[in-house]
Amino acid sequence: DAKTTQPTSMDCAEGRAANLPCNHSTISGNEYVYWYRQIHSQGPQYIIHGLKNNETNEMASLIITEDRKSSTLILPHATLRDTAVYYCIVRPLGDYKLSFGAGTTVTVRA
Amino acid sequence: NAGVTQTPKFQVLKTGQSMTLQCAQDMNHNSMYWYRQDPGMGLRLIYYSASEGTTDKGEVPNGYNVSRLNKREFSLRLESAAPSQTSVYFCASRRRGGEGNQPQHFGDGTRLSIL
Hints:
heterodimer, A: 5-stranded mixed sheet, 4-stranded antiparallel sheet, B: mainly beta, 7-stranded mixed sheet, 0% helix
């Protein structure tokens, strides 16, 4: 399984873009990059996932480098409600489980 | 559309008691999962069900049993609760097939304390 490396914590200002990095230098060709977040006392929430192309949805954008060894999750306009632990996970197509590491604790400040 | 619903939300048990955690999803998903999350740690998979009628062990299955009652429901049973099973339990479901790799969707958890 490809391991991921994320910063332990980061702060960002409300209304600004939040850029969350993730390194996955041992990723294999059939492994997807997923991002989830967990707001305090709630279940993990799916944000976005991608294989090699950049992806965007109503919550965020995912930028994957051309060599696929790293990615960045972008929250375009962070709000206080985006304060959460963000997890970057790499899993092969069709795999049955997710392995959540420590993630990045993101604090959005007013 | 409720998504994944877990009951109860909170429970306190005494050592040796048994209980069943319930999970239901209304998204017509094929696969369902049970995880536990301990303080400061990531989620660990207990059991999963790839489709109705099948169940398989995950990373930490000891002390638990599961039942995939139908496509919607997947229950987790503690036959003889131990303090080490104090945790937050999350149920998740996922649609199989389709384009790409479908994500898992989680319930809000059951907070279980065993005294």
